[in-house]
């Protein structure tokens, strides 16, 4: 119906105006579109110049903190292709049998010297800003990571790492939660992932997050480190950013 109305209106204009008049209006309309597109391009160039280190393309280095069970492997594949295309040096573990740095941080002592100094970090590791900034200075590095809604992330961690395997038997998630709800187990190894996967990858122990104040302060510190925090549930939107 709407298409019919548009066609009817166009035919009415054609009957009431000469073809030359319609042609002039069409030229005016195209000129307006061209000017609008030109303004948007100029604004985008100005924006990219102003954001500086906040823009992914304008940085010398990239630090991607790969997190557990957050669709982080999909993002790793994208960064790996960028590294291959641009011939960038990626931080790799010194030991051939290791395929990531976790549960340790990446530093000069545990990385393959053939890729030193690194241009990118894209593997699993534990965030430790003091050491990370030595290899990837904040002023010329784009820091990015990805998080996931813990409501769906935790069951995935539980199943993937067999977290409920205790004393030779596998507990259900419900029984495991009842057993561990009041536990103060240290956050090393998989225990940290079983309590709070996101904060564990960011280098926080369970004892660091005992109060609401400490949790908020930790989040504020992380906001100052990362230029972009992607969200798994908002995958397309995060890629656009």
TrEMBL record:
Supply the InterPro entries for this chain. Answer: Gal-3-0_sulfotransfrase, P-loop_NTPase
- Principal localisation: Golgi
Identify the keywords attached in UniProt to this record, alphabetized. Glycoprotein, Golgi apparatus, Membrane, Signal-anchor, Transferase, Transmembrane, Transmembrane helix
Molecular function in Gene Ontology: galactosylceramide sulfotransferase activity
Its annotated compartments are: Golgi apparatus membrane
Q: How does it sit in the membrane?
A: Single-pass type II membrane protein
* A biological process from GO: glycolipid biosynthetic process
| One Pfam family here | Gal-3-0_sulfotr
- Output the Gene3D superfamilies linked to this UniProt entry: P-loop containing nucleotide triphosphate hydrolases (3.40.50.300)
* Any one GO CC term of the record: Golgi membrane
- What is stated as this protein's family in its record? Belongs to the galactose-3-O-sulfotransferase family.
Which named protein is this?
Answer: Galactose-3-O-sulfotransferase 2 (Trinotate prediction)
Species per Swiss-Prot/TrEMBL record: Myxobolus squamalis (Myxosporean)
Read off the lineage from the record: Eukaryota, Metazoa, Cnidaria, Myxozoa, Myxosporea
